[in-house]
Amino acid sequence: MWLKPEEILLKNAFKLWVTEKDNEYFVLQRRRGYGEGGGGLTGLLVGTLDTVLDSTSKVAPYRILHHTPDSQVYWSIACGVTKEEIIQHWDWLQQNIMRTLSVFDSSEDVTSFVQGKIRGLIAEEGKTCLVQEDDPEKFREAHLRFEKWFELPPEEKLVTYYSCSYWKGKVPCQGWLYLSTNFLCFYSYLLGAEVKLVISWDELWRLEKTSNVILTESIHVLAHGEDHYFSMLLHLNETFVIMEQLADYSIKRLFDKESFQREPALSDPLQITKRGLEANAKSEQFRTFFRLPKEENLLEVHESFLWVPFSHFNTLGKICLSENYLCFASQDGSQCHVIIPMREVVNVEKPDSSSRALTVCVRGKRALRFSEVRDYQRLANTIRSRCGISASPQHSASSELKEKMKEQSWNIHFSEYGRGTSMFFTRKTRDLIVRGVPEALRGELWMLFSGAVNDMATHPGYYTELVEQSLGTSTLATDEIERDLHRSLPEHPAFQSDTGISALRRVLTAYAYRNPKIGYCQAMNILTSVLLLYAKEEEAFWLLVAVCERMLPDYFNRRIIGALVDQAVFEDLIRENLPQLVEHMTDLSFFSSVSLSWFLTLFISVLPIESAVNVVDCFFYDGIKAILQLGLAVLDYNMEALISCHDDAEAVTILNKFFDSVTNKDSPLPPTVQQASVGNNDKSSHISVDISELIREAYEKYGNIRSEEVESSRKRNKLYVIQTLEDTTKQNVIRVVSQDVRFSASQLDELYNLFKRQHFLSCYWTMNSPALLHHDPSLAYLEQYQLGFQQFSMLFSLLEPWAFCSIKSTLSLWVFRLIDENQDGLINFKEFCCALDTLYTGSFTNKLKFLFKLHLPPAFTGSPLHLKEQRIQHFIPVTEDSSHLSRLTAFDLPEDGVIRKSPERGRGKVDLQAYLKQWQNEILKKEETIKDLPRINQTQFIQFSKTLYNIFHGDPEEESLYRAVAHVTSLLLRMEEVGRRLQEPSSPPESKKPANTTAGEESSTEESSTTPESSDTSSSHNSQDLSETEWSFSFEQVLASLLNEPAIVSFFERPVDIQMKLGQAKVAQLKSKTNK
């Protein structure tokens, strides 16, 4: 690559560099220890220096220098990893620069021209690069090292790099840590010892900062059961944050299938930058803190003072501006914060230049004065340009006598701090929340605190349209909704009539229609029922959207990953805050199983409804932090009883009794039917606990838990939860497959890792890759990961034992069709392993049967003359697209009885009777014998012989194997000739079609009749002359003939080193992508 011209000192340089070419103005040099004559002590010393020192020489062992005859100064202008690359640069200089230099009179002019030309080339290259790095020159060098050392595909985008130590055992290796879009890489080279590490982000189990006696501070990475520690980082916190963001990005993109359409910095995996990741992290934190819609991105941040009217002083904080919101938070965030939708702004008064202040006027005759804003003039203009959206909906609240005191407190709060979307959020607001929200204001405040009020205001009429569109649809989701409707708070009067049930049905069905990825999951009905008690129907819908898509991400799906992640966070908090309990109960998984319903239903399923709504109040204000705090308070309250219990069942009984005893003395609701439990009978033995007191205690003891820490813990634990689920899937798949193959458990483990990685290799460098559709965690274990043809052909070419299938060969297409039993254009792990098992460990007969079937329909569908057309026609439907999905219906079932493609929730209705019938047929299905195989016709046999030649090519016994095949072929033809002559006298003269032509041959003829050539063959098939030359063989004939050839038998019975093949495939898998 071209380098920014830099003066270098050549006093001792010739000891490290060897001149390969030179002329009057340029010198091409090679680094000692590289290329011819490299190695030895010189190579070791130079290689070590190049790795430890941050110099261009360690990037590339070749360079070009510029100099002039009358000057001793040299300038580096180019470097190269390979000799071919540097020669291209040298030739370009010879052809484009040398002639021009002769016209200059002085050496200064020559040097100036060369430097200008090189800078121009670099600038031209920079125009084609969409990403601007902080230090482009150093980054280009680092990227060259990255490509050279790790040999990843050129599409892989390096994000950043750091110098660090990697601990391999007890010895640290000094080297370089490279963080790219899809991989974490490390390289070190010290005195001949090379250490190279490549881990993809989707393989990480743990990513955390740790410290111990030896390592004061380090980053711990757990992947594939191995621990990796990186220390001596100059910016450890910055490095960890970037690693955390890349791991989270990979998980969201590959497992959650997010497309990041609203986040330009992350929408293209080929253009990910450190700056873009940092901006996205800030936007995410901004949205989470202020509860804003996902569409909002943090655009500007201004430090300023805000006049707080109720405290009568200016508080220091930051103004945060997004597309549709102006937000302010005090310096620590806890004193006060305020959210102002741009649609509420009516005016921005003329800025005051003396105090650099501006005043924002909002509806309701309120104004906010910001002072000491550095760029106040531009901020005022920005706010003005973004105003003018319609006003937010007004809410009405009816007062009730029982709650007059609470309402009065809130009215005083509204008068001081404002009401609606631009209300100040302060510590006093939280105090009022902890005491309980009045019934009449609950719906309004839930809408405000959750941010749902903004969603509803910006999507007028959206809910009504959804209800109309989803009305009358019949899907798996609607079936589940109907089943659970009458289980939703059945004791509450509101859901004992058709009015409440119908509203619940409409809200749940509309949401399932809006978000088919979630559709409907249990617990959503309980949550929505409570929302409908205090909010209007449309408001309840938007509250459900806020909960499912923002506040409790990934909770409501088949794998409830979000709930499992928060349970892991809860376990961490128990270890930190309740050490006595941890000492007594070392296995905290008990609390995970018990607390699952707490998180999924926000305590609604375990507490009486009149108490549970107070918990929901806190949840909408503080998010998941409120549920974690309350969970800790519950365990703390029952600490002594839990420590003294003897088993899990006793602990569950203790907690159930406690929840039954929780009351809400301030609730105006009539007493509801309590949940049936053993605690109801002896309630007097348990002292009643007021929910307000319990919540207040939770805030007092555990209110110091910060939302930022919770979010960071969520990200860390999400890696572990997902990898645990993935490992469970792998173990179940291996257990099922191991019953049908002869591979060992460790070999199946390696095969599964290769199979899974092949899937992800198709998704790493493309956003919204169609291959993502081949991974569906909601399906049965065997069907969760599947490969399309392109993915299969690359992996199969690495693993098949005889190297007869190249990546793009037609033969690999035939193999794919043969093992794709259900014809859905996808191969699962079991199908893949069974094919390999036959080729690796099968008997001679089974291997030959596999090759024989490879040349029969549906695998082989035409003659060699039509292979080109076959490749065009049949590659298209099985490549990495979703076209095969359109051919499938709920009734397209596989031959092995496993459901291949269950319709997505909310998309199609499942006919379970069809599934049951298919399974019954499969149970009665007989095993295939060699007599069941159809005969192989002339075209198919010719291709079968060619396949054998391809398999034997390159073998040491190639000549004898070729002769054996030729001998078998001639023998079979003579046998067929004799057989046909013996049949001729008894055959009627008008019917000369061979009697042994089978349905298999006919189907092959019919299949090939789609092309012009094959139609000619088919039409002339009835002619007397051609029919005399037609012949076919049975499998028994082919098998018997080949068994008579010892060379062929010994070749197929020769054992294959499976472990070596797996090791080679693991190394070559990424390179095959590179060379594709």
TrEMBL record:
The keyword Metal-binding applies. InterPro entries: EF-hand-dom_pair, EF_Hand_1_Ca_BS, EF_hand_dom, GRAM, PH-like_dom_sf, Rab-GAP-TBC_dom, Rab-GAP_TBC_sf. Residues 979-1025 are annotated as: Disordered. Residues 997-1020 have a biased composition (Low complexity). GO terms for cellular component: cytosol. PANTHER family: PROTEIN VASCULAR ASSOCIATED DEATH 1, CHLOROPLASTIC, TBC1 DOMAIN FAMILY MEMBER 8B. This is TBC1 domain family member 8B.
